[in-house]
């Protein structure tokens, strides 16, 4: 049963993180275009992209997507705990994973 619980949590956590990242990226693209009047850089590593623009996009998108994923995973963990009566594997106090 613990193995099934672990697999369920892994899938649930992954899906929530992917959905959050996709939603954050869409919001970031829209916000970037509204703020700058142009599309965000497709590939910030491209030498033809202005360095300041590339760094700004990397910092803003990395932070926003990371925070969105973390919030989604926290929400998923909360839902999992309410549904099962215990925290997901790896989030229990004393887990060293």
Model description:
- By secondary structure, this protein is mainly alpha-helical.
- The chain has helices at residues 2-36, 51-84.
- The protein has one domain.
- The protein is built from 2 helices and no strands.
- The chain is elongated and about 50 Å long.
- The chain starts with a helix and ends in a 13-residue tail after the last helix.
- The model has no long low-confidence stretch (mean pLDDT 88).
- Please estimate the helix content: over 70%
Assembly of the depicted chains: single chain
Structural class: mainly alpha
CA-atom Rg in angstroms: 18 Å
Mean pLDDT: 88
Q: Which consecutive residue ranges, at least 5 long each, have pLDDT under 50?
A: none
Structure annotation, total helices: 2
The total beta strand count reads 0
- Our estimate of the beta-strand percent is under 5%
Biggest sheet, in brief? none
* The number of domains: 1
Give the helices and strands as they follow along the chain: HH
Structural descriptors:
single chain; 97 residues; mainly alpha; 2 helices
What is the fold's blueprint, element by element?
Layout (H helix, E strand, L loop, with lengths): L1 H35 L14 H34 L13
């Amino acid at each position: 049963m613990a193995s099934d619980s672990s697999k369920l949590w892994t899938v649930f956590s992954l899906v929530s993180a992917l959905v959050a990242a996709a939603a954050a990226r869409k919001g970031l693209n829209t916000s970037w275009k509204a703020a700058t009047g142009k599309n965000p850089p497709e590939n910030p590593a491209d030498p033809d992209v202005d360095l300041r623009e590339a760094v700004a996009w990397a910092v803003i998108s990395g932070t926003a997507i990371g925070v969105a994923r973390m919030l989604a995973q926290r929400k998923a963990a909360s839902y999992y705990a309410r549904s099962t009566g215990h925290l997901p594997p790896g989030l229990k106090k004393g887990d060293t994973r």
